[in-house]
Amino acid sequence: MITYVFSKETWVQHLASYVRTQVFILEQGISPQEEFDHYDTPQRYFLLALDKGKPVGTIRYEEADATTLKPDRLCVLAPYRKKGIGMALLTQLEEIGKEQGYQKSCLSAEVIAIPFYEKLGYHVASSPFKEDGILCVTMIKNLHP
């Protein structure tokens, strides 16, 4: 059974870093310097997916501005993909954002993941651009339709 923890506690940040390392650095070839940036501070919250205590997915909680949530670094370990974990991580983070008063959500999505985000109500709001060497687009969603 998958459980979810939203926290800035050190152990959550470390387990989130483990998942990000597996997916973004080892699997996708992003450099550690690009993956772990100035937003990775002790004050940063993460939502972590755990399978019997093992970290299997994560998403970073950021603010773009006073009304805009900026979910970032969504990733799920390969054996756990296509099981609804990524969708659960993002929708739970959006609910937290709504509780905090955010009106919309804005994120950078890999071009290959556009259909995933469209299923969750996001729409493409930019031309493709490179981020960490990967082709991405900006996607936006109104959190209070």
UniProtKB/TrEMBL annotation:
Gene3D superfamilies registered for this protein in UniProt: 3.40.630.30
GO molecular function: acyltransferase activity, transferring groups other than amino-acyl groups
UniProt cross-references to PROSITE patterns, sorted A to Z: GNAT (PS51186)
Residue span(s) of domain N-acetyltransferase: 1-144
Keywords (A to Z) from UniProt: Transferase
UniProt keyword annotation of Lyase present: no
SUPFAM superfamilies cross-referenced by the UniProt entry: Acyl-CoA N-acyltransferases (Nat)
Keyword set includes Transferase: yes
Protein name stated in the entry: GNAT family N-acetyltransferase
Provenance organism: Vagococcus humatus
